[in-house]
Design brief:
- This protein is of the alpha/beta class.
- It is built from 22 helices and 16 strands.
- Helix 3 links the parallel strand 2 and strand 3.
- Helix 6 packs antiparallel against helix 8, helix 6 crosses helix 9 and helix 19 crosses helix 20.
Length: about 525
């Protein structure tokens, strides 16, 4: 490791994931669902991501939210260079990437005086205490009053048993020779040998052995950045809240929306214990103990302002929602933390069917009678569960949809063109939700074929095969690599047909297309009307 890394892994680049928790509309929805006011429905909004990694999330969000000015920083030159390349390919004009350290980022020229959102995903637990102080200073100086901070971190007590495992892995990697991936691979092999030899630590902590086995299926760049940094701090929540409190931040809630519903998370006896704790921060820490929490995705606010009861209802009324997972009728099962979440089909089916016709505000759903005779508390609880389960998502207002659609189209075309060579980018931008929609490489190639005038799923599959075959790419089915052209084409055509029937209609309703037409926007306007 070299000095400029401050102990952070630099021998292997980070993943290209999209992290939906960073989505502005979702952050605002989190505040609304917790009864808090926010200013994310205003104008001239600014957003800063600290430690943006490859910058894919920042680029996607900039495309889906052209009304927001984005800034994103990372210490890695290769990360920033790649992020700038994609921004240029997508013709994004509302994002700037900065290769800076946490220590000197605040001195960067061209930054806004203040930000409405400052976000850190996969950063705060993985940097030194000194860098955390630089981050806190930046937040204290640059976050607007009323602004939101999103921060994810590893959490105690869920990581307590695995902390010795990380120490074993780190020590072994430091002793090894070769490249960082080689040393990580050897360290993992050594830990598995210890577990197989009947080591008492692994025998008495079976979850650690399971974690070690799971690491074998993870991408090596994720494993490197998760486990092999010099600094790593799983926080007790009270300590995290106290640290962020020095930047005048107050806890607002979790972006993992169902984590805010005690009636979903806990049994009656556990809820009684929680109700007996009057201090809100200690109560949140007690929740982590009851859940053996290992990872948190939290929103904090600078200047906590609660809605009045009437104001809170008004904020809900104005919230647009969109369907992001197809619903064809019938009963759905909702799960959270390994437990079933009880929702009645008679309650959620009319809502999902209404949103299947297009995005609508909560007030619009009420006017349509989608909630039947449900009480208000049951309505907001159900909507929170549906959003937390990924069945629906907060959406953006109809105003500005045309410019968002154009920006998303350019970004999505750039991503799909990259699918000709790689499967690294697995999300496209939605002008409806202001967030991402997961689409694999094949689905992106099908969209690309469709944008080039090919009309049938068979034609889309043929184009995909013409791209994949010269690269030596072969599909897998039932654990077997398909070797012949006929087999590969047959599976591609089946996948294209399934995409056309199931996924494409949803993509169109969310504005995730590559065609140079106003059709998606017109459909949404009709639905809103």
């Amino acid at each position: 490791m070299t000095d400029w890394t401050s102990g952070y892994v630099a021998g292997i680049d980070y993943t290209f994931d999209f992290h939906r928790q960073l989505t502005p509309a979702l952050l605002g929805f989190t505040a609304t669902a917790q009864g808090l006011r926010h200013g994310l429905d205003g104008e001239n909004l600014t957003y800063c991501e600290l430690g943006c990694g490859q910058g894919f999330s920042a680029n996607l969000l900039a495309a889906a939210n052209p009304h927001i000015e984005f800034h994103a920083m990372d210490f890695s030159p290769s990360h920033i260079a790649g992020a700038r390349d994609l921004a240029q390919e997508a013709a994004l004009e509302n994002i700037r990437f900065h290769e800076r350290s946490f220590e000197d980022f605040g001195e960067t020229s061209g930054l806004p005086a203040s930000f409405d959102i400052i976000a850190l995903h996969g950063v705060y637990s993985w940097v030194s205490q000194e860098n955390r102080q630089h981050i806190l200073r930046f937040i204290a100086d640059r976050l607007k009053p009323g602004g939101l901070v999103y921060a994810s971190c590893n959490t105690q007590p869920g990581w307590a048993a695995a902390m010795p495992l990380r120490r074993i892995l780190m020590a072994r990697a430091e002793q090894g020779r070769g490249t960082l991936p080689e040393r990580i691979g050897e360290a993992l092999s050594y830990a598995r040998q210890l577990a197989a030899a009947g080591g008492g630590y692994f025998e008495r902590n079976p979850a650690v052995a399971a974690r070690l086995d799971h690491m074998a299926s993870m991408p090596e760049n994720y494993v490197a950045h998760e486990y092999f940094n010099q600094d790593w701090t799983p926080f007790f929540f009270e300590d995290l809240a106290a640290e962020l409190g020095r930047a005048k931040l107050s806890f607002a809630g979790s972006v993992s929306l169902m984590d805010n519903l005690d009636c979903v998370r806990f049994a009656p006896q556990q809820r009684a214990l929680l109700d007996s704790e009057s201090d809100p921060l200690r109560r949140e820490g007690l929740r982590d103990v009851l859940l053996n929490e290992h990872f948190r995705t939290d929103v904090f606010v600078k200047g906590r302002r609660a809605h009045t009861p009437r104001g809170g209802i008004g904020a809900w009324f104005a919230t647009p929602l969109a369907l992001i997972r197809p619903y064809h009728g019938g009963m759905l099962k909702f799960h959270h933390r390994g437990q079933d979440v009880p929702l009645e089909q008679a309650d959620y089916a009319p809502v999902l069917q209404a949103l299947g016709r297009g995005p609508a505000t909560v007030r619009g759903l009420l006017d349509q009678g989608a909630f039947g005779t449900m009480e208000w508390g049951a309505i907001t609880r159900m909507l929170t569960v549906l959003a937390g389960a990924g069945q629906i998502a907060p959406a953006l207002p109809l105003e500005g949809l045309e410019s968002r659609t154009a920006a998303c189209r350019a970004f999505n075309r750039a991503v799909c063109k990259r699918a000709e060579e790689s499967d690294a980018l697995c999300h496209l931008a939605s002008p409806v939700t202001g967030g991402g929609v997961g689409l694999d490489r094949f689905e992106q190639l099908f969209l690309l074929a469709r944008s080039e005038g090919l009309e049938t799923p068979a034609e889309w599959a043929d184009l995909a095969w013409r791209i994949l075959a010269p690269q030596g790419q072969r599909l897998q089915h039932d654990g077997r690599v398909l070797e012949t052209e006929e087999e590969n084409l047959a599976l591609l055509r089946a996948r294209a047909g399934n995409f056309a029937a199931r996924r494409l209609p949803l993509c169109e309703s969310l504005g995730v297309t590559l065609e140079d037409s106003s059709q998606p926007a017109a459909q949404l306007q009709d639905a809103a009307a």
